[in-house]
Amino acid sequence: MRFLVSASTTLALLGLPLASHALDGITDLQGDFLATFAGSSSSHDLDVLAASVFYNPSTDLFTLTATLDGAVGSTATGFYVWGVNRGAGTAGFASLGINGVRFDRVIILRPDLTGSIGGVGALPAGSVTVSGNVITGTVSGSLLPSTGFNKMDYTFNLWPRDGAFAGTAAISDFAPNNANFTATPVPEPGTAVLGALGLAGLLAWRRRQSNS
User: Fold this and answer.
1) CA nearest 16: which of 207, 205, 195, 202?
2) Which of 152, 176, 183, 209 is the most exposed place for a label (fewest CB within 10 A)?
């Protein structure tokens, strides 16, 4: 019984830091182009299907990944903007009736494997990768200093743009539609091992109980 309590406690403690975060990122409806988008609905690479952000506190790195409905780069003038709310975010798209998308910094990822941060400058070479319909960016937390939030509590939204158009008419989609989402924490190696051991022990105890 003592072991059961220990294993259960371990699992509960491991779960606590994750409970308030979006563990699997977000998914977004296929073909939900904004009515205000001036581009083409055939720009499938500007239609978000899924988005995730992972944060590793030990390396202070954010990894932002987007899955699109078409091969990244199919739209020659397309690119991807991630809005980040570090604590002082404002509703920059209130004119569209979208008040839940709040940000105080933007990260731009491009199909040509370049990227930049608004107000900061270009991302280092190798920060952006593309594989089919997935584009990923790795950003040092040092480039995203807090404006009030703990880094684990930063929130994000992704909106692709077609650079052939200006203003909000260039935005094809918001993911999520009218909200932000938080990052998935990358567990410390020692914590992950502890959790695995606790779970293995709990399962072994249950097997012994069922066989007795």
Assistant:
1) 195
2) 209
Task: Please measure the distance between the N-terminal and C-terminal CA atoms of the chain and give it in whole angstroms.
Answer: 14
pTM of the model: 0.79
Q: Specify whether the backbone of 94 is left (phi greater than 0), alpha (psi in -120 to 50) or beta.
A: alpha
CA distance 108 to 81: 5
- Continuous H helices in 51-149: none
User: Would the pLDDT of 171 be above 90?
Assistant: yes
SS3 at position 46: helix
| Structure tokens, 108 | 């731009």
Distance CA 54, CA 201 (A): 28
Parallel, antiparallel or unpaired: strands 184-185 and 48-56: parallel
Distance, CA of 108 to CA of 72 (rounded, Å): 14
> Does residue 154 register a pLDDT over 70?
yes
Which residues are CB-neighbours of 154 under 8 A, at least 6 positions away? 55, 62, 84, 85, 86, 87, 144, 182, 183
3-state secondary structure of 103: strand
